[in-house]
Amino acid sequence: MILTVTPNPSLDRTYEIPALDRGAVLRATADRVDPGGKGVNVSRAVAAAGHRTLAVLPVGGPAGAALAGLLGAEGIEVAGVPVAGQTRSNISVAEPDGTLTKINATGPELTPEESEALLTTVGERSAGADWIACCGSLPRGLAPEWYAELVARAHRAGARIALDTSGPSLTAALRERPDVVKPNAEELGQAVGRPLSTIGDAVRAAEELRARGARAVLASLGADGQLLVDADGAHFGSARVAAVRSNVGAGDASLAGFLTAGGTGVRALAAAVAHGAAAVQLPGSLMPTPADLEPAAVAITGEVPLDRPLTEPVP
What are the residue boundaries of the Carbohydrate kinase PfkB domain, all occurrences included (predicted)? Predict the structure, then answer.
């Protein structure tokens, strides 16, 4: 069972349009509303893969109720923590060439009591969880050290933690030795404070995060593939993708694949790559099912192409 924690969830509406023309009246060719937030998406991907998951999240107002209802319709158990503020709503605009424009709302400000209620709920509901996945940005009211406190409590209870966040929240949590952290290339460069131009740069940055406390680093490098750097060294994975339709939630699908495949080693990396590749070929933030996966399209190697330039270098 995978328990997910999403401190700042959302309702995500995605519009598909022929082209984004500022100032014009645009007609969508398709639209959909999905539960949103990184941890929520991990739960959705875990459920789509046929595994049990429990989503812990703050729930506020009609949007929060709608979010919980959508998750329930996908067969996901929700441990909602009532909050006074309104759950946020986000908008994504997807173009045929894969370009995605996102407008993310700020979300509610949580009180100290609501913050502690989230931590307490995770502790109460984590019995029997194989992994706790803590994902996404922190809402207003939660200090950057909030994830660090969650990791410390979870480790004291004997749980394994996967952490997908960035900035000061990631930096603060490293001292508590999360079992795996999952930055993308931009977040990885931000964490080490230097540009990343090659896959070798990304490997060295991941090794630095391990030196600072992370036990393993699963790094998403966009179209270039994914890296796993752990005590056994570095491995690189990539997959053939026919066409990118939407990259919303692709990194979350990758983390779900990694965790449901055990959360360690080359087999888990292959599952992460397969799930991420499948997700980008689906509309909106739809999560892949086993039928969407193409394991034969995945290549994993311990011979990491260190000198290969990143398609999108991190400045």
Answer: 23-290
Instruction: Confirm whether 252 is a catalytic residue.
Output: yes
Give the global pTM.
0.93
Whole-number pLDDT of residue 131 = 98
pLDDT, position 309: 98
Q: Which of 34, 179, 252, 292 is catalytic?
A: 252
The answer to whether 176 and 154 have CB atoms below 8 angstroms apart is no
The pLDDT score that the predictor gives to residue 248 is: 80
Q: Which two tokens stand for residue 75?
A: 């067969």
N-term to C-term CA, the chain: 38
In order of start, what are the domains of the chain with their CATH numbers?
1-38+62-177 (3.40.1190.20), 179-314 (3.40.1190.20)
133-151 per-position pLDDT tens digit: 999 999 999 999 999 999 9
